């Protein structure tokens, strides 16, 4: 091949490359999508875990949603209160108020729950539910195969000694990825400072609930009757706490016959409380008798 033709071809390609490069540079300027610098600022205050707990595709999606006003400034729970305040400042909004919340597993069954069969398949809760609706007699109980543990990117979930999932509140960021991974919808969020919690989601009553788990709520209503603050009620067969009213007195834990309310009261605490109640009843009866006798004279 003639060397002149080779050089000419190289020159032509070089010129074409330069022309196309110039065209692309101009096009990039003309069609450039202006990005709000606040989006990067917001992104810098997010957790960076891309956990999906906010419901958006990663942290960048969450930042864009916050900027667009489609998500609240505290949409990224793992970011924490300090970063929420910083994002609020970027958006020119007031810092969100409210107590920190953590995830809680509404089940203390595990080894206390009756098994229908021994599951030997894939160690995953969703997979287990595909086999005859799961190995437990309790259709509301934690299966204990750790789908929630795998979903948590902060090391806050584990399978406890009794075989049911538990949350480490010190590590929990309330991203609620665990709740989305639980096929039985047992995980909810509770105020971090409130320690009284109903560890059961069984909606069956009485004998039906008792037959499937030794620590199931049976909807007896003793907790509801004992609460002085009207903070706990039986709803759909299971006790539910109203945390706006709960003061953490733990009276409900002392009268629960199934130890379904945490922290579980010891036998000594229950006996002591029974003695107090008995003394109060005797005192009230004596006062009424004295009043009746006085009225008769």
Layout of secondary structure:
Elements (H helix, E strand, L loop, with lengths): L2 H28 L6 H8 L13 H10 L12 H12 L9 E5 L19 H5 L17 H5 L5 E3 L5 E3 L9 H5 L5 E5 L5 E2 L7 H5 L11 H5 L5 E4 L2 E4 L9 H5 L5 E2 L4 H30 L1
Helix pairs in contact: 2-3
**What is the helix tally?**
11
* The number of domains: 3
What overall geometry do the principal axes of the alpha carbons give? elongated
Strand content: 5-15%
Q: Alpha-carbon distance between the termini?
A: 137 Å
Q: What's the order of the H and E elements?
A: HHHHEHHEEHEEHHEEHEH
- Give the tally of β-strands: 8
Write down the Rg. Answer: 30 Å
Largest sheet: 2 strands, antiparallel
- Mean of all residue-level pLDDT scores: 89
Fold-level CATH name of the largest domain = Alpha-Beta Plaits
Strand order of the largest sheet: 1-4
| Low-pLDDT ranges | none
Q: Indicate the CATH architecture of the largest domain.
A: 2-Layer Sandwich
Task: Throw out a few tags for this protein.
Alpha-Beta Plaits, 297 residues, two-stranded antiparallel ribbon, 3-methyladenine DNA Glycosylase II, Chain A, domain 3, 3 domains, mainly alpha, 11 helices
What would you note in describing this structure?
- The protein is mainly α.
- The protein folds into three domains: 37-91, 3-methyladenine DNA Glycosylase II, Chain A, domain 3 (Orthogonal Bundle); 99-192, 2-Layer Sandwich (Alpha-Beta Plaits); 194-288, 2-Layer Sandwich (Alpha-Beta Plaits), CATH 3.30.70.
- 40% of the residues lie in helices and 9% in strands.
- The protein is built from eleven helices and eight strands.
- The strands form four sheets. It has a two-stranded antiparallel sheet with strand order 1-4. A two-stranded antiparallel ribbon has the order 2-3.
- α2 crosses α3 (58-67).
- It is elongated.
- The model has no long low-confidence stretch (mean pLDDT 89).
């Amino acid at each position: 091949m003639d060397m002149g033709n080779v050089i000419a071809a190289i020159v032509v390609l070089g010129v074409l490359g330069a022309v196309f490069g110039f065209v692309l540079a101009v096009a990039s300027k003309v069609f450039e999508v202006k990005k709000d610098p606040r989006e990067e600022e917001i992104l810098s205050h997010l957790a960076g875990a891309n956990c999906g707990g906010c419901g958006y595709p990663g942290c960048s999606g969450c930042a864009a949603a916050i900027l667009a006003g489609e998500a609240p400034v505290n949409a990224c729970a793992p970011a924490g209160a300090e970063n929420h305040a910083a994002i609020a400042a970027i958006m020119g909004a007031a810092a969100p108020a409210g107590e920190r919340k953590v995830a809680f597993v509404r089940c203390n069954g595990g080894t206390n729950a009756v098994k229908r069969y021994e599951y030997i398949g894939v160690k995953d809760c969703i997979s287990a539910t595909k086999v005859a609706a799961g190995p437990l007699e309790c259709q509301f109980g934690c299966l204990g195969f750790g789908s929630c543990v795998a979903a948590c990117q902060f090391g806050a979930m584990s399978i406890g000694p009794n075989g049911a999932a538990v949350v480490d509140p010190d590590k929990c960021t309330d991203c609620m990825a665990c709740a989305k991974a639980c096929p039985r919808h047992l995980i909810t969020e509770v105020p971090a400072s409130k320690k009284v919690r109903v560890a059961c989601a069984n909606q069956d009553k009485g004998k039906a609930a008792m037959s499937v788990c030794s620590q199931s709520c049976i909807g007896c209503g003793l907790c509801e009757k004992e609460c002085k603050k009207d903070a706990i009620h039986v709803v759909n067969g299971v006790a539910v706490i109203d945390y706006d009213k709960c003061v953490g007195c733990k009276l409900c834990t002392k009268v629960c016959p199934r130890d379904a309310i945490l922290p579980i009261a010891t036998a000594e605490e229950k006996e002591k409380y029974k003695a107090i109640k008995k003394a109060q009843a005797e005192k009230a009866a004596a006062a009424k008798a004295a009043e009746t006798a006085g009225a008769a004279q």
